[in-house]
Amino acid sequence: MMTQSSIAIERVVNEQVEAAVFRALDGIQAERLMYKKGLVVLIKPNLLMAKPPEQAATTHPAVLKGVIQWVARFEPERIYVADSSNGIRPGNTRKAMKVSGIEAVCEALGAIAVPFEERPRHSYVVQSPLVLEEVISSTLLKEADVVINVPKIKTHGQCVLTCCIKNMFGTVILGNKSKLHARFPHIEAFSSALADIYSVARPQLTVIDGYVCQEGRGPSSGDVVKLDLIIAGYDPVALDTVVCKIVGLDPSRVIHIVKASHKGLGTMDLTKIHFTGQAIESVRRPFRIPFTPSVPFRVPRPLSEYVATVLFRATVSFDKKACVRCGTCWQNCPTGAITAPRDEVDTVPLWRRSACITCYCCAETCPHDAVKFRIPIVKNLAGSWVGLLLLGCGVAMAWIIVTLL
Ligand code: SF4
Ligand code: SF4
Predict the structure, then answer these.
(1) Ligand 2 centroid vs 370 CA: distance in angstroms?
(2) SS3 state of residue 120
(3) In Å, how far are 43, 191, 325, 349 from 83, measured between CA atoms?
(4) In angstroms, rounded to a whole number, what is the distance separating the alpha carbons of residues 83 and 92?
(5) What pairing do the DSSP bridges indicate for beta strands 371-374 and 315-318?
(6) Of 391, 384, 217, nearest to 313 (Cα)?
(7) Which of 32, 253, 303, 382 has the highest Cβ tally under 10 A?
(8) Phi, psi (5° rounding) for residue 138?
(9) For residue 326, how far is its CA from the centre of ligand 1 (angstroms)?
(10) Per DSSP, what are the bridge partners of residue 213?
(11) Pairing state of beta strands 274-277 and 146-150?
(12) Beta bridge partners of 148
């Protein structure tokens, strides 16, 4: 029996991506969502930034093509394909649509590619908020009869994984994303905000692009993984949990999945899921997971705060050969931790450790992969009160031992 908790996992065979999308959607009987002709359908891909499909930073156009073709079978009135890219420049999303191949697919199939920021704004009230009372986004979210989430599987420097729940962060318009990073610098609060944002958009259907993915330094500069999977379902928490299992990641490490589950957006208990297509074990392919500041919930709050904000604090540097001083990083840094290089003096931007909240926006938005992150745990420990305490204890122990001898 098909339920809201049905999930289909389908392999892409012989590069027939659209066929895999159709099999997955038919497998979960998604046609019941398209209950009449003339619906307005909004499709939300991942358009993080202007990168070509082979770099796997954005939803692959072949996956989007399959979704649009499937939707078109039900004779909707309009199909919108919308997102808002990273960065603050108004043209960023249009550029990402063009470079990613999304715009060309929309033109060919009669869908309307539109950045959220080009439509009027609307304030959406968050029900039972964890941290956010309202989300400002486009009116498209309320105009649509059906919202379809089409995220991509990528590891993520800050959130560990980006897929279903994290993809809806793109409904927050351009630079407002940076403001949210600044407002919620701690990963736990930021993850709560992601769950609140998801609850506003709350897509009725999700089709995951597991065709080409990113591991390691994702979500923009990771290594490409050809996973050849399409996963479809309704429950974002269950879908993200399934993705974690496939890529060899403990889902409880991805705090926004846990927060979304607590908020009642879905289940992490996969025994409640009805699967069709491939079994998780048969498609498992462990990813290289980035070193992130996520800490388990069960540790006391002050300790988790310490680990996240002090011990795992990143040091940002810039690759002198790759940096073209384009300004994207300092324009997008939510706290002003990066500033422009001084003329004639510096070859790369300047970074202030004290202002940095390790949000990874600079690395995500740099078009030349010139931003480098390092997490010097020993140095961070040595420079913190815990380090000083440990040093003090060590000195005291040594003094006692010497005195006793
Ligand atoms: S680090 Fe990247 S974003 Fe920053 S100025 Fe250099 S090239 Fe531009
Ligand atoms: S320097 Fe980079 S990681 Fe640090 S706050 Fe700015 S954008 Fe975020």
Answers:
(1) 13
(2) coil
(3) 9, 20, 27, 29
(4) 11
(5) antiparallel
(6) 384
(7) 253
(8) -90, 155
(9) 5
(10) 225
(11) unpaired
(12) 43, 205
pLDDT in the model for residue 401: 82
Name the DSSP letter for residue 170.
G
The ligand 2 atom at the shortest distance from the C-alpha of residue 181 is 8
CA 338–ligand 2 middle distance (angstroms)? 7
Over the stretch 48-78, which tens digit does the pLDDT of each residue have?
999 999 999 999 999 999 999 999 999 999 9
Bridge partners of 229? 11, 210
| Distance separating alpha carbons of residues 210 and 247, to the nearest angstrom | 11
CA-nearest residue, atom 6 of ligand 2: 333
CA of 361 to the centre of ligand 2 (A): 6
| 6 phi and psi angles, rounded to 5 deg | -75, 140
Residues with CB under 6 A from ligand 2: 316, 333-335, 337-338, 351, 356-362
What 3-state DSSP class applies to 368?
A: coil
Q: Which residue has its alpha carbon closest to ligand 2 atom 7?
A: 333
Q: Whose CA is nearest to atom 4 of ligand 2?
A: 356
Whether 154 has a pLDDT exceeding 80, the answer reads yes
Q: Name the domain count of the chain.
A: 2
Q: Which domain holds residue 324?
A: 301-395
Judge if 322 and 277 occupy the same domain. no
Q: Are residues 108 and 209 in the same domain?
A: yes
Q: Atom 5, ligand 2: which residue's CA is nearest?
A: 356
CB 212 within 8 A of CB 225: yes
Measure the CA–CA gap between 205 and 43, rounded to whole angstroms.
Answer: 10
In a shared domain, residues 175 and 219: yes
pTM over cut 0.70: yes
**What per-residue string of b and e applies to 209-232 under the rule 16 or more CB within 10 Å gives b?**
bbbbbbbbbbbbbbeebebbbbbb
Q: Which two tokens stand for residue 346?
A: 């510096």
The reply to whether 30 and 129 lie within a common domain is yes
**Interatomic CA distance for residues 307 and 377, integer angstroms:** 10
Q: How far apart are CA 9 and CA 26, in angstroms?
A: 11
Take atom 2 of ligand 2 and give the residue whose Cα is closest: 362
Return the percentage of the chain with pLDDT > 90, whole number.
Answer: 76
- On whether residue 400 sits in a domain, the answer given is no
In a 3-state reduction of DSSP, which class is residue 223? strand
So what's the pLDDT on residue 337? 96
How far does residue 403's CA lie from ligand 1's centre (Å)?
56
pLDDT, tens digit, for every residue of 6-19?
Answer: 999 999 999 999 99
